[in-house]
Write a structure and sequence with these properties.
By secondary structure, the chain is α/β, with parallel strands linked by helices. It is 45% helix and 17% strand. The protein is built from eleven helices and twelve strands. Strands 3-2-1-4-5-6-10 form a seven-stranded parallel sheet, sandwiched between helices. α1 (10-21) crosses α7 and α8 (210-221) crosses α11. The longest helix has 19 residues, at 80-98. Bound molecules: NADP nicotinamide-adenine-dinucleotide phosphate.
């Protein structure tokens, strides 16, 4: 049996679906029974629990061959690092008390640094915490910028005909499709081919600029000359606060954007076949276009 946290999210859902496709026993964890139901309908054991509920997730992890864990986003957290640490401690205790021996932990590029990476610093804390577990094999996946982040721009593109970007338009950044992270995780938790504490960056197929992203999305949705509008950090702050994000979350995201633009948030591994994943920004843009049509 495999226990999958965040099973209704981008990555966890695909991991659970692939494991079910392979006829494996899966326990899926999330806070919303309705969202978990499609997986339950396919035979997964659905556990409705908050990741801060250590007792419930210890029970959910017990008997698992491997677990997939993450620290989910919480846009309204009053103190985001404190929130991340609370979830991280709960997950770590549950792993320890359940006796599970293989863990795939969703982390991020930049999680080798304790400061200056904004929201990613909470993932550094979690890597360190999990590394202290004795007798548990932990693979920290450190993916780069998710292509799915561009889905937040569906409305902006529809209403204003442009792609807004806090990242510099001409800076190449490794971008990855979350489905590729899920496929990689499935392989690792079924092959169990990691021992000790290891990290693996996942960097998408190539580095792309926001101008490249605009060209790919523009082509897919049939909008010629989709331009990138550079958004200042101040305007990003105002926009995020207006959307209901907490001051703490906004501060940590601004710090991360600054790190991206300065180039201090960057992979540590050289690109090579092992950390390169297949889905291109053009292929992702076709998925984007389907959702754009449905808007
Ligand atoms: N965005 C990026 O570019 C990027 C890059 C590198 C790493 N990351 C990492 O990726 C993570 C997001 O992964 P994702 O996109 O696969 O997730 P996601 O789509 O944001 O989904 C989050 C999942 O966690 C569940 N969840 C949220 N809060 C929970 C709680 N308190 N207790 C139990 N379950 C909870 C959600 O379900 P319910 O709400 O129904 O409970 C959902 O299944 C980020 O938090 C970050 O750590 C992101």
């Amino acid at each position: 049996m495999y226990a999958i946290c965040g099973a209704t999210g981008n990555i966890g859902r695909i991991i659970a679906e692939r494991l079910l496709d392979q006829g494996r026993k899966v326990r899926v964890i999330g806070r919303n029974a309705k969202k978990l139901q499609p997986l339950a309908d396919r035979g997964a054991d659905a556990i409705v629990a908050d990741l801060t509920d250590t007792k419930a997730i210890t029970k959910a992890f017990t008997g698992a061959t491997a677990v997939y864990v993450l620290i989910p986003p919480n846009m309204t957290a009053k103190d985001v690092r404190k929130y991340q640490n609370r979830i991280g401690e709960s997950i770590t205790t549950a792993i320890k008390n359940s006796g599970v021996r293989h863990v795939v932990n969703l982390s991020s590029v930049g999680a080798h640094k304790s400061e200056g990476m904004g929201i990613v610093n909470g993932l550094y804390d979690q890597e360190q915490r999990l590394n202290k577990l004795e007798g548990v094999n932990v693979l920290h996946l450190r993916p780069s910028f998710f292509m799915e982040n561009h889905l937040w721009q569906l409305n902006t593109i529809k209403e204003h005909g442009m792609l807004a970007s806090t990242m510099k338009a001409d800076t190449p950044v490794a971008q990855i499709a979350t489905a590729d992270i899920a496929e990689f995780a499935v392989k690792r938790i079924t092959d169990l081919d990691f021992t000790g504490k290891v990290t693996r960056e996942l960097l998408g197929p190539n580095d792309v600029t926001m101008t490249d992203v605009a060209t790919a999305i523009g082509t897919a949705i049939g909008t010629k000359n989709l331009n990138v509008q550079q958004v200042s950090l101040d305007d990003t702050r105002k926009h995020m606060l207006g959307m209901g994000a907490s001051e703490s979350v906004v501060d940590s995201m601004i710090e991360l954007y600054e790190a991206v633009n300065k180039g201090t948030w960057s992979p540590t591994e050289q690109r090579r076949p092992e950390n390169t994943t297949p889905t291109t920004i053009e292929a992702f843009s076709r998925t984007f276009s389907t959702l754009y049509e449905k808007q």
